[in-house]
Specification:
With 278 residues, the protein is of the alpha+beta class. The chain folds into three domains: 1-111 and 180-237, 2-Layer Sandwich (Gyrase A, domain 2); 114-177; 240-278, no CATH class. It has helices at residues 7-12, 34-42, 52-64, 84-90, 137-163, 168-171, 189-199, 206-222, 224-235, 242-252, 261-272, and strands at residues 16-19, 23-31, 75-83, 97-100, 121-123, 131-134, 180-188. It has a five-stranded antiparallel β-sheet with strand order 1-2-3-7-4. It has a two-stranded antiparallel ribbon with strand order 5-6. Helix 2 packs across helix 3, helix 3 (52-64) runs parallel beside helix 9 (224-235) and helix 8 (206-222) packs across helix 9. It binds flavin-adenine dinucleotide. Flavin-adenine dinucleotide binds at residues 92-95, 191, 194, 198, 203-204.
Length: 278
């Protein structure tokens, strides 16, 4: 079957979904969907039309058994605008194709990220790479004022250098990580699921998680059966180590859990995690 059109994807195509204070994600285009996944999985058998139930079963089987290549037949192109510190995390995903706005060619817009008050938190005491308790309102106010003051000052200096006809590629070098950038980003569904698993996880920084959530909604519109299988086997699945499997066996046999300390803490977290979509 040639070009596949999916009504739920058509309904959101080209619409900007706001993320953070000034960012967005827009689904520019897509190619394929659930149908394409099953067609490409069945190509070697040349079988005829199957029922929706059989298609769903096949997609579930492919995801469960890591037969990933049929998911690579589905492509999504996004236009996204995000702070540079989010882009730096995002760009680590090497399996996408992208084009970013050039600060050598264009004058960068006066657009900066300011976190929402409730997102301003103390350093976590348990996670060196994360946030912990909420800060008091006076500190929230102070942080926002400091961020804004620096942003206004650095952008005024940038504008001055642009007015003095300094090369844009030099004038921009002091612009901060909170400045917004934007890009076109194209990826196949298999690698998008990999990105979403890592970046929607609670270990990822909140500011990239929120982009992941919007892109997950878009992926679900394009390929709902594949997305459901991704939720079932990958996103809300849990991977146990050999030691943890031994512990499960011991517990099921009515014995004491052999795990101790941090290992026990991590095991309990896996078992009791609320990240199960329910
Ligand atoms: C919570 C979190 C914290 C992180 N903290 C840090 C940090 O402190 N410092 C830091 O530097 N990074 C950090 N990262 C980035 C992380 O190490 C990965 O670079 C990033 O998540 C991309 O993952 P990936 O390589 O699997 O993805 P992709 O680049 O999208 O690749 C997908 C898969 O394709 C394969 N692949 C792609 N390219 C190659 C290649 N050239 N050779 C072989 N296989 C390839 C791999 O199997 C890979 O898993 C962090 C990521 C997360 C999610």
């Amino acid at each position: 079957m040639a070009h596949i059109t999916i009504p739920a994807a058509e309904a959101i195509l080209d619409k900007e979904f706001t993320v953070l204070n000034k960012g967005f994600v827009r689904l520019v285009d897509y190619m394929g969907g659930d149908e394409r996944i099953v067609q490409s999985a069945r190509v070697s058998y040349g079988t005829g039309t199957k029922t929706v139930r059989e298609d769903k079963g096949l997609i579930n089987y492919l995801m469960k058994n890591l037969h990933t290549s049929p998911f690579e037949q589905v492509i999504l192109t996004f236009h996204a605008k995000m702070p540079i510190f989010v882009a730096r995390q995002w760009i680590r995903h090497r399996t996408a194709r992208l084009n970013e706005i050039s600060g050598r060619y264009s004058v960068m817009a006066d657009e900066f990220y300011i976190p929402a008050k409730e997102d301003i938190r103390h350093q976590s005491t348990t996670n060196k790479q994360g946030r912990g308790e909420e800060v008091p309102p006076q500190l929230q106010k102070k942080v926002i004022e400091v961020l804004k003051r620096d942003q206004v000052s650095v952008y005024a200096n940038y504008e001055e250098m642009i007015k003095d006809d300094v090369a844009r590629e030099l004038a921009r070098i002091n612009l901060p990580l909170s400045l917004y950038t934007q890009w076109y980003w194209q990826i196949d569904l298999h690698n998008l699921f990999h990105f979403l698993r890592l970046r929607m996880d609670h270990h990822a920084q909140k500011e990239i998680q929120v982009y992941g959530e919007v892109m997950a909604m878009m992926a679900k519109a394009v390929a709902p059966m594949a997305y459901e299988a991704f939720e079932e086997h990958i996103l809300y699945g849990v991977r146990f180590s050999r030691g943890e499997v031994t512990a499960i066996r011991e517990i099921l046999a009515g014995k004491e859990n052999p795990l101790k300390g941090k290992a026990l803490e991590e095991f309990n977290q896996k078992i009791t995690s609320k990240q199960d979509g329910s």
